[in-house]
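Researcher: Please generate the 3D structure of the following complex. Treat every line as part of one assembly.
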Amino acid sequence: MNTKTSDTVVLQTGKRSVLLASLLAFILAVVVLGAFILPAEFNRDPLGVGEALGIAGLSQPAAVSAETVRKEEGAFHQDSVSFQLLPFEFVEYKYELSKGSSMLYRWTVTKSRGGEASAVSFDFHGESHEVEDYEENYSLGEGDHEGGTFIAPFDGIHGWFWANHGAEAVTVKLSTTGFYTESLEFRDGFVKKQKLK
Amino acid sequence: MLIPVFAAAHNISGANARFVEGLDGPAVIPYMYLGAKHMVTGYDHLLYLLGVVFFLLRLKDVLLYVSLFTLGHSITLMGGVLLEWNVNAYLVDTVIGLSVAYKAFENINGFKQVFGFQLNARAAVLIFGLFHGLGLATKLQDLSLATDSLVINMLSFNVGVEIGQALALACIVVILGQWRQRSSFQKQAFAANTVLMSLGFILAGYQFSAYFWA
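Model: Done. Output below.
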């Protein structure tokens, strides 16, 4: 039943059976593509089968939700505070955030007298509840503002240390919104805890 | 850089990609591993190889055809990366899908029966090898290779591809050898190549759809 052409052996077949098999292969491919792959992978449903089977759009929402939407169960809070820092004064302000919870933040520094921008040293970091003395730095340097999105990498308190190394009094103004539960202010050796409503 | 997770049939996965992109300088073993993994888990390449060796009875012929395939895909893998060819991965993968369907059609003696002529099988495996290599090049280019150790990393990837191919082929050849000894092989071989042709069409259709919609 085998015939040898050069090095390869191919099946001895008839024209009819080859055409039939090829047609079958092609139709099978079109059906699998139209009924399953196009609806599931590309959200195109030419036969309506994807809708009926519940696989239409299977890949799209999953890919989108993993990247851009992050659901939160905790209470939603907003907070706005300002601190006046005399030369060489410093303050630390943190939020209680559990792992995976997020917040949006923005802080600006102005001269207390003139209102124009002024730089401070800052250190945005977190302290873990689980591992004693574990700290992680997120962002540090000198500047008069910073803003962004923060997603807590572990359960703990997360926030900023600001120090005024300039010669004039400055005001640091912080606005945040997020899924934190309380705020902590560390200043002059005291801790001020505040449950956020 | 965006790595479409679902749309592309067979890309180097996100975590692996981030790992090698974080590397600086030559990384022989990681790239070899990626090349081997890409081949062993790459159903498009595996299906084509299955089609190619399906009716090759002698080990000598297996080696000859696989060497031609290796020559073909090494040329375009290295050429594509070094000359920075910007070919569309989806279109290349469409051709790779069609190469599977072509080989299955040839295996059931389709060209002779339907069109009355026979393509040169050796030339065909070399030419389709060129396309498979282009596909490999697009996957490697996705990784935004560091230019300082481009050549060594690319060669490592290529060596890995050959190792993976040898591993996969060893399994395919052994299983085919067992299968051929059964009396039902003749009948099943026809059905198997029909299924292979269909899988080739599905792969091609999938990648061609991804070209438009992914």
